[in-house]
Amino acid sequence: MATIGFIGLGNMGGPMAANLVRAGHAVRGYDLVAPLCDAAAAHGVTIVADAVAAAAGSEAVITMLPSGAAVRALYDDPAGILTAQNDCLMIDCSTIDVDTARYAHAAAERAGKQAIDAPVSGGVGGAVAARLTFMAGGTAQAFDRARPLFEVMGARVVHCGDAGAGQAAKICNNMILGISMIGVSEAFALADRLGLARQALFDVASTSSGQCWSLTSYCPVPGPVPESPANHGYAPGFAAALMLKDLLLSQAAAAQTGAETELGAHAARMYQAFADAGHGGEDFSAIFRMIASGHRG
Ligand code: NAD
């Protein structure tokens, strides 16, 4: 069993750290928010004074932070987490831009350490149930070292390629998700106007060529999929603000690389309007309500 530093004990990091403890690892945790530290301590995480203390003496350090800027700040600090012991494995599970992920890999390498970018999908429910999917970027050797930890916190682990490949996979996947959720929502909005029963559309499309995860697992209208957020007041789940964050990351990457992502750009604009209208805290499938109302926001 290993000693693991865990920085960022929020909605995702808190339960991920708890699952590492449950598997028998010693977890040294830190978050800027004291009540989150208290909650993690209740799950057996040893709370330490700061990020450097979390990294000190750890065989692996996991960061689960809100943004690329937060990750960069930790990797940039000359007296920071990279002062951990030499063979410490640096794992960043935050969803951030590919450039910052590669920057973190390079900084770790300069400090003589292996690194992995490993964003996740599966949401808070997946984090609690240890059912996350990890998409990892880094060398095969670093991936082999990280895999046993991912297997404790998740159900599926994919080595996507070299540094930054995990983040690339994440933003491409979530661009598909944002676009498909809007597509499914538009279909239900049109069905409503045509007088077609929602269940009838679901029964046809879920077994026809319109089938997709946004329809069959996460249906944006109440009824057909009992566990979808639509049946629970659109409580997240996966918040619209986080979908917007991921779509903006995909659009920044598209602009940088010259990729044509017309629908991704449009999806980003729609989620921006939805968030601007005060719905960022709702589940991302609640965009159905904006679409069905015929209003932008
Ligand atoms: P969150 O805001 O709940 O947690 C992030 C935590 O990081 C906060 O508690 C914050 O206090 C802490 N933090 C920020 N800077 C810090 C620092 N310098 N030192 C210590 N702690 C610091 O966010 P979350 O929902 O847990 O998401 C974390 C990451 O996972 C994000 O990048 C998000 O995009 C990604 N993600 C989230 C979900 C989801 O459904 N919530 C799903 C997949 C991926």
TrEMBL record:
User: Hey, which family's this protein in?
Assistant: Belongs to the HIBADH-related family.
Q: Could you mention a single GO BP entry for this protein?
A: branched-chain amino acid catabolic process
The 6-phosphogluconate dehydrogenase NADP-binding domain covers which part of the protein?
3-161
Catalytic positions? Answer: 170
Q: What Enzyme Commission number(s) does the record list for this chain?
A: 1.1.1.31
Reply yes or no: does the keyword NADP apply: no
Q: Which SUPFAM superfamilies match?
A: 6-phosphogluconate dehydrogenase C-terminal domain-like, NAD(P)-binding Rossmann-fold domains
Q: Which PROSITE patterns match?
A: 3_HYDROXYISOBUT_DH
* The keyword Chaperone appears for this protein: no
The molecular function terms in GO held by this entry are: 3-hydroxyisobutyrate dehydrogenase activity; NAD binding; NADP binding
What catalytic activity does the UniProt entry give for this protein? 3-hydroxy-2-methylpropanoate + NAD(+) = 2-methyl-3-oxopropanoate + NADH + H(+)
Domain (3-hydroxyisobutyrate dehydrogenase-like NAD-binding) ranges: 164-290
Organism domain of life: Bacteria
| Taxonomic source organism | Acidiphilium acidophilum
Sorted UniProt keywords: Branched-chain amino acid catabolism, NAD, Oxidoreductase
Give the metabolic or biological pathway. Answer: Amino-acid degradation; L-valine degradation
Q: What is this protein called?
A: 3-hydroxyisobutyrate dehydrogenase
Q: Give the Pfam families listed for this entry.
A: NAD_binding_11, NAD_binding_2
For this protein, the record's NCBIfam families field holds: HIBADH
Q: Indicate the enzyme's highest-level EC class.
A: oxidoreductase
